[in-house]
Amino acid sequence: IKQLIEWGTEFDREGGKLVFTQEAAHSRRRILHSHGDSTGAEFVRSLIARAGRESRISLLPFAATESLIVADGRCMGVRYLDPILRSPREIFANAVILCTGGAGQLYQHTTNPPVATGDGMAMAYFAGADMADMEFIQFHPTALSLEGAPRFLLSEAMRGEGGILRNAQGERFMGRYDERLELAPRDIVSRSIVAEMRRTGSRMVFLDMTALDGGFLRHRFPKIDETCRAFGLDIAKDMLPVSPASHYCMGGVRTDLWGRTTLPGLYAAGEVTCTGVHGANR
Ligand SMILES: Cc1cc2nc3c(=O)[nH]c(=O)nc-3n(C[C@H](O)[C@H](O)[C@H](O)COP(=O)(O)OP(=O)(O)OC[C@H]3O[C@@H](n4cnc5c(N)ncnc54)[C@H](O)[C@@H]3O)c2cc1C
User: Fold this and answer.
1) What does the pLDDT read at residue 155?
2) Ligand 1, atom nearest to 66 Cα
3) Distance, CA 271 to ligand 1 centroid (Å)?
4) Rounded to the nearest whole angstrom, what is the distance from the C-alpha of residue 88 to the centroid of ligand 1?
5) Catalytic residue (one of 50, 176, 180, 186)
6) Helix (H) and strand (E) counts for the chain?
7) CATH 3.50.50.60, domain 60-136+250-274, yes or no
8) In 105-172, at which residue ranges do the beta strands (DSSP E only) sit?
9) What's phi and psi for 26, nearest 5 deg?
10) Domain boundaries, the chain
11) Confidence class for position 24, pLDDT limits 50, 70, 90
């Protein structure tokens, strides 16, 4: 976190001090955020700016990597599609680092962006690297569930700030499933929602933020507010329809804590990996 701050990432602060929010299964507030609810976008902004200042890094935006070049049991480079000419190209390197993210798009319902297609996992697998824990996929409990709308994430921090879940009959139901209620771990809340959807014959449940101050909600969750508004929902007044959607791959290319895969010359970082940090859950 210190390094990200040194590199220009701006986290939300009050009176100069970092502000923390609470998420599910946490016993205290320990989650940083940026611009209310745009933390990921702030990471991407600040890291691209930082990389741009590094003379040893050449960026090639929109180049789609297709496969790894392997010779004599070692990863020697990548084959990619030239973003302008749309023709195949190769780059050779002493080391290749995969950081292509997760595979949420394998599922019909996902919070992930269109690029989360598991390409890096497939490339590493076909190149002979060990994979691990591929069966462990996290489903986020509260993706927006509205006809014609994307499965936009209604962040867990909304429950952390006091949001509650109600079934189609308007009942708060988490008490039936876990004493931690809405702040039980994600897998438990997701399974509870599915059980409740089946029990009530409904395709969704509802996130209720109406007990919280509207001004606070709009300040704390500006992006969620904007998106919900675009679909005719007021986060401070309306019941927000939600259901679980695939969110995160705990498994991936097996690495050690130095990012080394089992294929010499190939390293991996981020959601494409299985470092062992998460185990079966996250
Ligand atoms: C809506 C949402 C909210 C989240 N909120 C949180 C949170 O609050 N806290 C948290 O810790 N985590 C959160 N996560 C999870 C976290 O954002 C991801 O796990 C993380 O961004 C993964 O980072 P990454 O660098 O591994 O991959 P990504 O950020 O997914 O980046 C992968 C990159 O690889 C590129 N790529 C993919 N395939 C190819 C290819 N074949 N060739 C070339 N490029 C390719 C993609 O275009 C993309 O730019 C959230 C995820 C989502 C979807």
Assistant:
1) 93
2) 41
3) 7
4) 25
5) 186
6) 7, 14
7) yes
8) 131-132, 137-144, 164-166
9) -100, 140
10) 60-136+250-274, 137-247
11) confident
